[in-house]
Amino acid sequence: MLIPSGRILTAQPCEKPFAEGAEKQFYPSNSEKELYCIAKPGCERALKKEVQRCKDISKKLSLINEELHLYLKMDEAPSEQQVRGKYTLIVDKASGDLEKTIEQAGTNWDKDRAIKAMKQIIAGMKNLHDVGFIHGDFKLDNILVFSKGEGIEPIYKITDFGKSLEVTRNQIGLYRGNSIFASPEAEQKWESSAKGEVFSVALGCIQLLGTSLRQEGKPSDLQGIKKLLHEDPSIRRSIKGQNRIKKLWKRIKLFTLYFFCVRLLGRPDSRAENISKKIHEYVDNMEGFSEQLKSLLKRMTQARPEDRPSMDEVYKEFEKLELLKEPSQSILNH
Ligand SMILES: Nc1ncnc2c1ncn2[C@@H]1O[C@H](COP(=O)(O)OP(=O)(O)O)[C@@H](O)[C@H]1O
Ligand SMILES: [Mg+2]
Q: Which residue in 180, 187, 184 sits closest to 223, CA to CA?
């Protein structure tokens, strides 16, 4: 049974977390609007590091408000509220993450909602890159949805900064994020950079837009682009998390292979080109979106990082874009 030591005894003890990821668990708190966040076993150091990263990012931002679309508030709980005496944080309770929201919405997840979400996500990622950080694990379950009530547009905020990196322009770090959303250079060489993240953001946006086109009766999981990235034998990327030892062993094997085949025999950029080509074919087949929007997504998923726009350029271009195929159907008031 999980009862924070100082918890009022009349409160329902909870065994089941409200939500959980690979490293953290979220439990209901004494307040309707907040959750307790604790680290899963072995992940406490990572959680502390994440809290520090959130502070570092916050310090660089002149103003923290809803418009940033970044969720950075992770306050340490007072000692009497610590869950089982563990390092406990208090966070604002979101209605869920974007991946689950899309799944739950089913065919109600339409183009209008998808484009509005995309606009906020691009703004959030631009704000993060502007202050010299990259997220390092961009995917739709790391985007929180704060619903403001029936008929009111939800606010989307990027969360989970545990793998974020401070990078100066064009600098390269080690990619530790999800393989399905990885750029080709992140997947092959574990290189993480701002331009690599542009690729990941595009994949997330393609997933958002693509799922808005699904029709009733189609399977709800592994939709669209994820299905392509997972099932095409020439691309195939893993979806399920692997344990750390297995991951490390795989990296050692792949690195050795990479070193001999790539460094000694020349770089096979063909895999990156192939991935890019397959994604572009998928984008071309997304009905109902403008050619301008498709062109932006295709540039964001170019095989070579230097051919991709920066997040700032993406943001500025998106502001001016005609988004849907029929100009008269434009749903955003720019
Ligand atoms: N503030 C929050 N409110 C509601 N649910 C949340 C909140 N933060 C995270 N979650 C849920 O918990 C999941 C895991 O959180 P995350 O911060 O991504 O941790 P992990 O590092 O374990 O992936 C998210 O995908 C989301 O579904
Ligand atoms: Mg996460």
A: 180
